[in-house]
Amino acid sequence: MAAGGKLEVEFRLRGGGKPHWLAASGHVFLGADGRPERIAGVLRDATSVKDAEAERERLERALAQAHEGARVFEERYRVLFEDNPNPMLIFDVQSLSILAANEAAQRYYGYTRQEMTGMTIDRLQTPESLPLLHRSSAMNEKYRRKIGRHRRKDGSVVDVEVTSHALRFEGRTARLVLVRDVTESLALQRRTTVQYATARILSESSTLDEALRRVNQAVCGILGWSAGLAWRLDLSSDTLRLANLWMRSPSQAERFEQLCRKISYARGSGLPGRVLKTGCALASGDVAKGPAWRRAPHAARQGFRSQLAVPIAGRDVAFGVLEYFSDEAVTVDEKVVELLETLGRQIGQFIERKRAEESLKREQAQRQEIFDIMPAMIWFKDTENRIVSCNKAAAESLDMTPQEMAGRSVYELYPEDGASYYQHDLDVIKTGKPKLGIIEQLPMAGGERRWVQTDKIPRRNEAGDITGVLVSSFDITERKKIEDVLRESERAQRDFVANVSHEFRTPVAAIRGFAETLRAGALEDRRNRLRFVRIIERHAERLGRLVEELLTISALDSGVARKRLAPIRLGPFVQDYARSIATIARHRKVKIKLDVPEGIVVVADELQLIQALENLVGNAIKYNRPGGWVQVGARVRGAAAHVTVADNGIGISPADLPRVFDRFFKVEKASSGNSGLGLNIVKKIVESHGGRIWAHSRLHKGSTFHFTLPLRR
Fold this sequence. Notes:
The protein is of the alpha+beta class. It has 20 helices and 26 strands.
C-alpha cells in the first residue's frame, strides 16, 4: 500500500448478544523498507447504518416483487377477463350497476364500454329472468349457474347460460358473470322436444279434438308461442272453422275464442285460407303492420305481433290449418317452419289412420257378430302361430275377450300344447290341404282341459298364397267322458276285486299266521313273542291305511267327500308343511328346497291339499337317495297356480310313467307298505278342485309331478 494510502474496513463482531458492525478508517504509514509500519485511524460502531442498508435492500426487493405480482395479475386479468372470447361482466350486488365489461360482452350486447359501465344489469334481462337475478343477488351465493333470456341493444332476445361467482371488486361486494349463448342449442332442444312430445301425443290420443288440444298446448309451451289455433276444414262448405284454441293467458282465451268461432275462412281468404289454398306455410313478422284482417284489433289488444300458419295435410287432401301467434315481433326460423309443417303432416296421417281404424272396426264388428253367434270355437291364425282374430266362444274358453286374444301367440295362450297345435297348422300350410276330425284336448280357463274335434282349413290371399289357417273346434268333452267312463268302469270292475283281494291277502295272512303261532305256544317264548306282536301290529296298520285309502277314493268317486274351499296362501302353507316333515327328510338325508313366490293364493280344501302333498313329497323322499333333494315350486299360469314337486331320486321308467296314477299300480314291486293308491288319490283330489295332474321322469335321474289349482279371483 503506498504512503499516504487510506484504509477503510468494515467487519462484524459476534459476542454473547446481538452482532455488531464496526467501521475503521485511517492512514497507513510505511517503513524505510517500503512496508506498512503503522496505521493511524478511527474505529466507530456501524451497526445502525448496516441495519438501515439491509432494510432498504429488503424494501427494494419487496417493491420489485410487488411490481412483478401486479404485472402477472394484470396479465392474468387481461387473459381471463379482457381477452376472454366469452362475454364477461362484473356488477355490484347492491346497486346492480355494471363495474366492468370485457370486449366480448360489448360486442355481444351491442353497447360501448362507456355505455355499459354504470348501467344496471337488469337492463340486459328480460322480465321473466329478473326474479332469478334478484334472488341470486340477495342470497349472495358464491356460485350459481342458470339458463335465462337476455335482451341486446337492438332489442333482439337471446337464450344464455349464465355462470356467476361472488367476489370482491374495487372494495365492493360484486359478482363476476360469464355468459354463454345457447340460443341455437336450446332451439334444437326445443324442436326435438316438440317432435317427441307430439309423437307421444298422437300415439296416446284417442280422438282428433284431444290430439289438437294437447299438440297446441305442447307447441306453444315449448316454443314460447302465446296462442295456438287449429282450423278444421268443413267439407260441406269447403271453409275453415275453429276446432281448437289454446292460449297462455286463460283469462283472455274465452273472448278470443268467441271471436274466432264466429269466423270462417274460404280458400284464399285470410292467412289460414291462403295456407289452405296454397298448401304452404305462411308467416307474418308483424301483425300490426300487415294487411287488415277481421281479428287484427282484438289480436292487437292481446299483444300479438307475429303470426305463423301451416297446413294439416294428408296424402292427397288437406284437413285444416294450424295457426300460432307470438307477442314478440320475430323472424320465424326456417327450421321451426319446417318442424311445424312436419307436425301438420303427422296430424294429417293421424286423421287418416283414425278414419281407417274406424272403417276397419266397423268391418270387424260385422264379422265378429257373425262369429259370435256360432257355437263352435273359431280362430283365424297366421303362418307364425299367432291369432289374427277369433269368435266369442273361443275367447271365453280362456276367460278373455276377442280383442285380448288378437295378436297373441298360441305358444303364449297354450304354453304346454302350443307346439303340437302348431304342428297340425304346419301340415296344412305346407300341403295346402285341410286336416279334418282332429281329436285333441284344449286347455280352458281355470286349468280345465276339454276334448274337442278340430277342423283346420288353409287361408289364402287374392294371389292364392297361404296366409294362415282357419281353425274350428267343437267341444266333445261330454261325449268323450261318457266313452271314458264306460271303458274305465269295465276295466275297474275287472281289476278292482283282484287288486283289493291281493292287497288284503298278504297282511291278513301275516296276522293270522303270527296269531296262530302265538296261540300255539309262542306266548311263552319271551324271546320272540314281542317281535311277533309288532309284526301283527305293522300289518294291521297297513290294513288300516288300505281301508282308509279305499274309503277316501270311494268318497271322492261318489262325491260324498265335501270340500271346504277357502283361500290358501300357498307360500306359507308349503313352508309349514316342509317344517312338519323336516325330521323325516333329515333322517333319510334328503334336502327339502322351496321355490314358491309370495302372493300366490289358491282356492282349495286345506286337508285334501295336505293329503296330496304328503303323497307326492313322501314318495319323493322315500324313493330318493342319501344326499338327494326334493323341491316344491309354484308359478302363476293364467288363472291357475302351477305346482311342481321335483326330486333327483330313482326316477320312473318310460313304460311305467303312463300308469303312475292308476289304482293299485306300483312302480316298485318289491316295496313294502305301498298300496298303489296314493297317486290315484292325489289325482282325484286335484281333479275335484278343477285342476289337472301329470308327471315327467327320467330313470335314475329323478321325477317331477305337476298339478294345477285355481287361483283366488
